[in-house]
Amino acid sequence: MTDMIEREIYSYICKNDGVRAKEIAAALHRERTEMNQYLYGSAYMRELCYRDSSYCWHGLIRQSVPHTGLGDFCGYYGMVWEFLRTDQTQWMTELKQGCMRIGRNLNNTRGLFHSFLDTYETMRQLFEDLSDVDVSRWEIAFELRIKRARYIRIYADVLVISDSHIFSLEFKMKDRIDPAEISQAAKYCEYIEVLAGPEYDVIPALVLTKAHDLYTYVQMERSTAEIPVCSGDMLFNLFDEYLGFLEP
Fold first, then answer.
1. Residue 76: beta bridge partners?
2. 142 and 158 in contact (C-beta within 8 Å)?
3. Is the distance from CB of 45 to CB of 10 less than 8 angstroms?
4. For the whole prediction, is pTM greater than 0.90?
5. What is the DSSP letter of 19?
6. DSSP string spanning 219-247?
7. SS3 for 31?
8. What is the DSSP string of 191-226?
9. Cβ-contact 234, 214 below 8 angstroms
10. What does the pLDDT look like over 36-92, one tens digit per residue?
11. How far is CA 205 from CA 11, 113, 174, 180, in A?
12. Average pLDDT of the residues in 183-204
């Protein structure tokens, strides 16, 4: 897990296009010795940042809109408006190509491609329900896989990045809630918070596409935290709860 100093340093690097250690230290009011400990010891700086030949630090994924570099770790990534202009066949082709590029296993023996299409249709329906909402700055990512050495692990079936929130959606083609899948949905939430930066709240959710009219909160095992669980046809309600589309 990360501490606040590590988050600040990582965020400053990812918001700027090449900064030296002394610039980061001055901006964040930190001692150079402490700064170097994080730059060369933190997993995020070591594995999701790099230092160029001019000794400037860069983030592999920028904390900007769009999040430049995020697509390098996804099967499919784009602005929502681009996704909505992509038909199912083209989307599936791009997703498979992207999955092969990032090393995502495409073994279809358990109906993986069918689940991909199920996810695609659910997200298309969501944005039809959101047709009156301005999503021009929203981003969407399918099959996010960040696996850097043994330190950084971030997986998500779908990320939707709005202006203020990131929805990390775990999809299951089921109609019943499995407690183990509740924990799976929330597992990478803190890491996504670091990745995206302090401007975003990250909302994990479990989406059961074979269920209907389901929208509830389920408490995680060995925790007081609750995770939203919804059917695909109620996904709009999740977004409305946090973004307030239906407020008078």
1. 142
2. yes
3. yes
4. yes
5. B
6. EPTTSS-EEEEEEGGGHHHHHHHHH-TT-
7. coil
8. HHHHHH-TT-EEEEEEEETT--S-EEEEEPTTSS-E
9. yes
10. 999 999 999 999 999 999 999 999 999 999 999 999 999 999 999 999 999 999 999
11. 25, 22, 14, 13
12. 93
What is the pLDDT at residue 247? Answer: 59
What is the residue whose two structure tokens read 């230092």? 51
Degrees, nearest 5: CA angle 114-158-228 = 105
Virtual CA dihedral for 223, 224, 229, 235, nearest 10 degrees? -130
pLDDT category, 179, cuts 50, 70, 90?
Answer: confident
Q: Tell me, what's the pLDDT at 108?
A: 83
Residues in the chain: 248
Tokens 């602005």 correspond to what residue? 79
For residue 173, which amino acid is it?
M
User: What does the alpha-carbon distance between residue 8 and residue 120 come to, in Å, rounded to a whole number?
Assistant: 35
CA angle 229, 71, 75 (to 5 degrees): 65
pLDDT of 208 strictly over 70 = yes
In eight-state DSSP terms, residue 67 is: -
The pLDDT mean for the chain works out to 93
Residues contacting residue 109 through CB under 8 Å, at least 6 positions apart = none
Name the CA dihedral angle for 87, 93, 96, 99, rounded to a multiple of 10 degrees: -70
How does DSSP assign 106-125, residue by residue? ---TT-HHHHHHHHHHHHHH
CA angle 29, 6, 54 (to 5 degrees): 75
Tokens of 125: 């329906």
Query: To 5 degrees, how large is the angle CA 216–CA 217–CA 218?
Result: 120
Residue 160 β-bridge partners = 140, 167
Q: Using the 8-state DSSP alphabet, how is residue 97 labeled? A: H
